[in-house]
């Protein structure tokens, strides 16, 4: 006798289809959307000022874990619900949402390597596609005040 179907249970076919759709969206961008990376004072100032659509967190950090757990930020004494805007890294959202078309990158000096590593992961993921395309890569605007010069001086010294 067939098992009674529970409407709350998803069949393996439904789960696979949702995963495939999520994977497809990983390489599609949300046109006109703006995101900030990573969570920090400058990125949150841009987020607030530009009313950004997404907050792209570093894949692994205490701040990322905290913000995913809380789902909100307090900026200038105002609580902002941000759970629906969060991405765990450039490839870690997996819930069917698309990356923003433009990401303002605002790391501290010690976070630059994390960003470069995140880009490499994104490029490797794109390379697994049959026909990767440049239009699948967001525009990244590096927007940190003075840290690139500071990092350059450290590398030269």
Walkthrough of the structure:
The chain is of the alpha/beta class. The chain is built from five helices and seven strands; from the N terminus they run H-E-H-E-H-E-E-E-E-H-E-H. The protein has helices at residues 12-26, 41-50, 62-70, 112-127, 147-156; strands at residues 29-37, 54-57, 72-75, 78-81, 86-88, 99-105, 139-142. It is globular and about 50 Å long.
Explain the layout of strands and helices.
Layout: H1 12-26, E1 29-37, H2 41-50, E2 54-57, H3 62-70, E3 72-75, E4 78-81, E5 86-88, E6 99-105, H4 112-127, E7 139-142, H5 147-156
Parallel strand pairs: 1-2, 1-6, 2-5, 6-7
Antiparallel strand pairs: 3-4
Mean pLDDT: 78
What is the makeup of the main sheet?
5 strands, parallel
Question: What does the overall shape look like?
Answer: globular
Q: Give start-end ranges of low-pLDDT stretches.
A: 1-8, 10-25
> Which structural class do the helices and strands define?
alpha/beta
Q: How large is the count of helical segments?
A: 5
Strand content: 15-25%
The SSE string, one letter per element, is HEHEHEEEEHEH
**What is the helical fraction, as a range of percent?**
25-40%
State the separation between the terminal residues, measured CA to CA: 75 Å
Order of strands across the biggest sheet? 5-2-1-6-7
Number of strands: 7
Q: Report Rg.
A: 18 Å
Summarize this structure as a short list of keywords or feature phrases:
157 residues; five-stranded parallel beta sheet; 5 helices; 7 strands; 22% strand; disordered N terminus
Could you give a short description of this structure?
With about 160 residues, the chain is of the alpha/beta class.
């Amino acid at each position: 006798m067939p098992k009674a179907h529970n409407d709350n249970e998803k069949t393996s076919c439904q789960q696979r289809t949702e995963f495939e759709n999520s994977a497809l969206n990983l390489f599609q961008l949300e046109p006109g959307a703006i995101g900030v990376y990573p969570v920090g004072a400058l990125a949150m100032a841009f987020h607030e000022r530009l009313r950004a659509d997404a907050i792209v967190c570093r894949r692994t950090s205490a701040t990322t874990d905290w913000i995913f757990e809380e789902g909100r930020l307090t900026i200038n004494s105002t609580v902002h619900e941000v759970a629906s805007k969060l991405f765990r890294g450039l490839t870690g959202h997996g819930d069917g949402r698309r990356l923003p078309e433009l990401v303002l990158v605002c790391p501290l000096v010690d976070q630059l390597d994390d960003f470069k590593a995140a880009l490499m992961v994104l490029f490797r993921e794109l390379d697994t596609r049959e026909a990767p395309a440049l239009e699948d890569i967001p525009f990244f605007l590096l927007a940190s005040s003075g840290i690139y010069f500071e990092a350059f001086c450290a590398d030269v010294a």
